[in-house]
Design goal:
Strand content: over 45%
Distance between the termini: 31 Å
CATH topology of the largest domain: Maltoporin, Chain A
Structural class: mainly beta
CATH superfamily of the largest domain: TonB-dependent receptor, beta-barrel domain
Shape: globular
Length: 735
């Protein structure tokens, strides 16, 4: 808080006497005023909505050249450049009708462009839309995005997979800072709750240029909920119920803003019993309880803005070891179990100059992870403390060239307190420096960048030489240069092409460098390799998109070659009845893509057809298949949108047919997986009863109670199916 006080004091000292202002009216082509149009300046986190008469006003703006975005469902988003000065500016806008999705500003890429202007194809999904699909957890919702899957352990633990890469190869950002929560472990979940998360952006490919190590496979970038607009006070309450797990998710949020100050707080509680499979049995100890608290405070004036956010997440979950044993609907966690406390503190600051700006993101993450076998004394107890920083300077625009230079870094300590050690006490330091430029003319965009990174890992000696649990101290340094080059153009009217070539890297994690013991749940004795080198990849991506009034088509293709891919391999020895495996390296490749359509037939303007297909193949250079490669999937959704008089607005009803093909390309420790098809139904909308209005949705997932096993389920080895039929009821009140 002292740091926040100093920054806010600095900001107050910079307040200008002139209060820059822009206002105007938004209308359609017939000059009819449009209400509820979002008017935003993403660079400075300012946003408002048009009134019933189509009017808008944005006050307290910094001086300089900014892009203003006008967006509304059913209309084509429009972006204009405006030079903001002490003189009041009037800017009227006309929006054209369109059935395509509202164009979104992409925050996870360098220049915060609209998706239509972005050189890289980024998947953007509102969390509200994921919740409408009936997902019980955040990662379950993410797995519905083409190219994204999850490695799951029941319903409580899910790890993201992007085009066949997972674990430390996928980087997660939340509140503008990188999330560190011992994510190398297969039995560790994401550690995030969907309450208070506005949207997610998925970069499917190497993003080391902007994010450094561990972004070799891609990035999940979670955008927190926005503050209320100036002068508003908002409160909301939501409740979701899940039939399969007898689960409940309750959320309450409050937020208010003045012209300069902004506040919000949100609490959530999530509780589930053991999940039930198709034949009615429950999978013992897959139950979990989760408490989540998010809070934020922001301040801005015409020269400076600062946002401080805090997230506390407490997760207690069972570790399913007995399979289908004791049948219970209790939420009391059995042994063995995990307890995870996660604290995320982030501070985002921006200083505005006349023609440039400086962004500084600071983050502190404290992850306290315990594992209990048969008592409340943890046998495994690790505390991970991470401080990271990300400073970017946006140089003055030179003609049509935009340029960013920046530095990033991380200081991380891992300390053990339990009897067992999974990894040793360690200190990790990262430092990276980069530059990137964007050149735009007509419908063409070129973007390029270069980056250098260094990671230093130091560990302590532990244990007795020659015995299990012995860790020899290491002091290793990993360096990497990476580059990216992207090009976007319109090949014809409504037809866009994006071509990107980028390199990425991942330094070996502590488990790969230092392991010496039996890995839980695998019955393998794993031995680390202190001589491992960086994983280094080069990926080529091609995106083709066609959008017209009633038809959309996209085709994404990629080829990803990874030098020194890290994996485990048996060495032929046996220790205490367990086969011994070494961490080794070999070159590998992954390739495939996603394709899909959105058909909106005229004159059936209420009907939408979505269809997508995704595939990925992963193999070593010797032809052996890589593990944890998701099966091919074909997804079809028929969605109708409607209104019933004046009491049911924004209504929708949908049927989803999710067909997962057989996975016959099994990795070394895997078996083949049969195909399966799931049917999911959903219906919902906004209900208006007098002065009361609320959002309602009802889902029936796996409608026919299909017994199936996902190829990426960690319970597959025990023959345990995934979750059966799940009826989900959700309601949200704006208080």
């Amino acid at each position: 808080m002292k740091l926040l006080y100093l920054i806010l004091t600095l900001g107050l000292s910079l307040v200008a006497t002139a209060q820059n202002k822009i206002s105007g009216t938004v209308s359609d082509k017939d000059n009819k005023p449009l209400s509820n149009v979002i008017v935003s300046i993403p660079e400075i986190h300012k946003e408002t909505m048009t009134s019933e008469s189509g009017n808008y006003t944005l006050n307290n703006l910094p001086t300089g050249n900014f892009k203003i975005v006008f967006s509304s469902i059913g209309f084509t988003s429009q972006t204009i450049s405006v030079v903001i000065s002490p003189q009041e500016i009037t800017q009227n806008i006309t929006l054209e009708e369109s059935i395509t999705h509202m164009d979104e500003v992409i925050v996870s890429t360098a220049f915060n462009k609209l998706q239509s202007q972005n050189v890289m194809k980024v998947e953007h999904q509102n969390v509200k839309a994921l919740q409408q699909k009936g997902a019980a957890t955040l990662i379950e919702g993410l797995a519905t995005i083409p190219g994204v899957s999850q490695v799951s352990t029941g319903t409580s633990i899910g790890k993201p997979v992007i085009r066949g890469l997972s674990g430390n190869r996928v980087l997660v950002y939340t509140q503008g800072v990188r999330l560190e929560n011992q994510q190398f472990g297969a039995e560790h979940g994401l550690g995030l709750n969907d309450a208070g998360v506005e949207s997610v952006e998925v970069i499917k490919g190497p993003a080391s240029l902007l994010y450094g190590s561990d972004a070799l496979g891609g990035v999940l970038y979670f955008n927190p909920e926005k503050f209320a607009n100036a002068g508003d006070f908002k409160a909301d309450f939501s409740q979701r119920l899940f039939s399969n797990t007898l689960g409940s998710n309750t959320t309450l949020g409050l937020k208010t803003s003045s012209e300069h100050w902004k506040f919000l707080v949100r609490g959530s509680y999530n509780s589930h019993a053991d999940y039930k499979i198709g034949d009615g049995d429950r999978v013992t100890n897959t139950r979990f309880n989760e408490t989540d608290l998010k809070a934020g405070i922001g301040y801005n004036n015409s020269n400076f803005s600062s946002v401080l956010r805090y997230n506390f997440n407490k997760l207690n979950l069972g570790i399913p070891e007995e399979g289908i044993a004791e049948q219970s609907t209790s939420r009391n966690i059995l042994y063995p179990k995990q307890g995870v406390d996660n604290h995320i503190l982030s501070l985002h600051n921006t200083l505005y100059f006349k023609n440039s700006k400086l962004d500084a993101d600071l983050g502190y993450i404290f992850n306290d992870r315990s594992e209990f076998e048969d008592s409340n004394v943890p046998v495994l107890h690790m505390k991970l403390k991470t401080f990271n920083y990300d400073v970017k300077y946006y140089l003055p625009k030179l003609g049509k060239i935009e340029t960013i230079v920046g530095v990033q870094g991380m200081n991380q300590t891992n300390t053990n307190f339990g009897e067992e050690l999974l990894i040793p006490d360690a200190l990790t330091n990262d430092f990276g420096i980069f530059g990137t430029a964007n050149y735009e003319w007509k419908s063409n965009v070129i973007q390029a960048g270069l980056r250098f990174d260094n990671r230093n890992v130091t560990t302590e000696n532990h244990g007795t030489v020659g015995e299990e649990g012995y860790f020899q101290s290491i002091d290793k340094s990993f360096d990497s240069f990476n580059a990216s080059l992207g090009y976007k153009t319109d090949l014809a009217k409504n037809f866009t092409m994006r071509l990107n070539i980028a390199s990425g890297f991942r330094a070996p994690n502590l488990a790969e460098l230092t392991s010496n013991g039996v890995h839980e749940g695998s019955n393998r004795y794993e031995i680390g390799n202190a001589n491992l080198k960086n994983e280094q990849n080069l990926q080529t991506d091609l995106n083709l998109e066609y959008k017209s009034s009633h038809f959309e088509l996209f085709v994404n293709g990629f080829y990803n070659h990874i030098n020194d891919y890290i994996f485990i391999s048996p060495n032929g020895n046996v220790i205490d009845g367990n086969n011994v495996y070494d961490y080794v390296q070999a070159n590998a490749r992954l390739y495939g893509g996603e394709t899909g359509i959105h058909f909106h037939p005229h004159p059936l303007d209420w009907l939408h057809l979505y269809s997508s297909f995704e595939t990925v193949i992963g193999e070593k250079d010797n032809g052996d298949h890589l593990p944890l490669i998701p099966a091919n999937k074909w997804n079809n959704t028929f969605r109708g949108e409607f209104e019933v008089k004046n009491w049911w607005k924004e209504g929708f009803a949908a049927i989803n047919i999710e067909s997962t093909l057989a996975q016959n390309n099994a990795g070394e420790f895997e078996t083949k997986t049969d195909d399966y098809t799931l049917i999911n139904l959903s219906v919902g909308g906004k209900i208006i009863l007098g002065k009361t209005n609320f959002n309602l949705n009802l889902n029936a997932n796996n409608l026919f109670d299909k017994a199936y096993v996902s190829h990426l389920s960690r319970l597959k080895a025990d023959g345990i199916p995934n979750i059966g039929r799940n009826i989900v009821f959700g309601i949200n009140f704006m208080i």
